[in-house]
Amino acid sequence: MQNCKMQFTEWNTSCFLQDSARFPEILFLSLNSKTKSWHVSCYRDDSKPEKETLMISSHIEQPEHVRIKGLTKIFGRNRRKAVQLFRSGKSREEVYAATQCNIGVYNINFSVHRGELFVIMGLSGSGKSTLIRTINRLIEPSAGEIHIGNTEITRLNNTQLRALRRKRISMVFQHFALYPHLTVLENASYGLKVSGVPREEREAKAREVLEIAGLKGYEQHYPHQLSGGMQQRVGIARALAVDPEIIIMDEALSALDPLIRREMQNEILALQRKLNKTVIFITHDLGVVANMADRICVMYAGKIVEVGTAEEIFYSPAHPYTWALLSSMPDLETKERLFSIPGTPPNMIFPPKGDAFAERNQYAMAVDYEEQPPFFKLSDAHYAATWLLHPNAPKVEMPETLKNRIARMKQKREEV
Length: 416
Fold this sequence. Notes:
alpha+beta, 8-stranded mixed β-sheet, globular
């Protein structure tokens, strides 16, 4: 190889070499701390950048209910040109320089099975809310496909889209989205009203779900007379009242106090199992969904970085970002200091080159600053996008404190 460049930083245990003409060969150099010698290994990636990977969990026998393929949302005036540049292989910074468009979410691929509780997890600014609002087209996607059963909803006209939202998809909003001039009963029955359900029937159904949500006796109150947690429960009741196939919950339990949160978790699980509902649940708190999720998808900077079953994410996490999230969860059984992720999320108006998490990743290699990692398969349901999983990358294990925490969680589960 000619015109090779070498990058190395003193905190890295490895670096990489890549041809400046963007040949597909990537060389990993690993330093043996005992012999002070370098080991060189080569990786050839013949795949195209941003290759689509559908994360499909074969352990769930139910058919696919939601399928997302290549979903992208770009904000800015020249969105069409930006999408074309991305598809031609241009980097995010090159696209921004040419179009002044920035990324909300990019090239998202996953599927959710019927009756599954699928959790999308990430800290603020990771793109979770943007992603779910494209699923029901409250935000119009810039590119990609969204399939609900056999329906490709990006092709629906406004009339068809309204019918889909009324009958097949409900949403619980993060900030409640209640009508201030309507009573609790009228808010809970609103979806049934716009669907043409007679008043007596819709109010009877609304009273039923309000009782499930713990709001019996508050039917004639107005939203401003309720606490934040109570308003959130009205939103949950409104979503349940229309008996949809799919319920999208955007931080639906975040405003609830711990006791009510546990009750609502149990109610959501009971309804899902009894009625075989498909639930897509958004949260920034892994502790909220530890006992609820079938699968968990972890997002960072508008992209999926890891996806797997709840057991795989909690007990066998593979991405340093997931390690950090689990390490930051409060643990009353130890006096260990809470972990915080250093730095701040990247500015997606000026997106970084390579892996967006590299600047905050203490295990980052030089390759992370140059090339976005592909997904590496760990099981039929478990994928992670990190160069640490490449067979020629240095062996890096999760932090010892996290290993101890996982061991305690496993022990507690066995005791139960």
